Amino acid sequence: MRTTRRPSILFAVVLSSAAAANAGSRVLVETGRTEYVRYCAACHGVNATGDGPVASVLHVRPPDLTRIAERRGGEFPAGEIASVIDGRFEVAAHGTRAMPVWGRVLGEPIAERTTADEVSRGRIDALVAYLESIQAGSTK
User: Fold this and answer.
1) What topology does CATH give the domain 21-133?
2) Contact 82/124 with Cβ under 8 angstroms?
3) Distance CA 118, CA 135 (A)
4) Which of 43, 54, 56, 62 could form a disulfide with 50 if both were Cys (CB 3.0 to 4.6 A apart)?
5) The pLDDT of residue 84
6) Cβ(48)–Cβ(118) under 8 Å?
7) Contacts of 51 (CB under 8 A, 6+ apart)
8) Per-residue pLDDT averaged across 118-139, rounded?
């Protein structure tokens, strides 16, 4: 009788893929954290609770970004958050559609043969992944 090892090989491939995806997610979140600290923490605070050093001089207090999902009935609206960051959705407190101070920075090329759109999309995806990871009650 001949036995085959295909199921165990397939299982190993699935586990390896899952581990790689998880590692990729961690890298994306960590990249987002770095971007957040660099570009968002002045207003939204290092802990994203709306208490950054600039918050006290703003006309509208920055929201607690750790409770986005809570305010949306437990769901994190990744697409909506991306549209706020990239300026497709206007937020009165931000003034113009470009996020204040650093809006253009997100589109600056960081590698050869990248377009501003590719770079900004990647940075925004990282920021969104980070914000999703810090939601109150999140297990990510």
Assistant:
1) Cytochrome Bc1 Complex; Chain D, domain 2 (1.10.760)
2) yes
3) 26
4) 62
5) 83
6) no
7) 45
8) 86
Locate 127 and state its tokens.
Answer: 């920021």
For tokens 């002045």, what's the residue? 42
Domain range list for the chain: 21-133
Give the tokens for residue 27: 């890298």
pTM: 0.70
Euclidean distance between CA atoms 24 and 30, whole angstroms = 10
Output the six-digit token pair for 122.
């990647």
**pLDDT for 29-81, tens place per residue?**
999 999 999 989 999 999 999 999 999 998 888 999 999 999 999 999 999 99
Residue in the block written with tokens 């890298």:
27
Q: 49: helix, coil or strand? A: coil
Buried/exposed 44-79: b ≥16 CB within 10 Å, e otherwise: bbeebbbbbeebeeeeeebebbbbbbeeeeeebbee
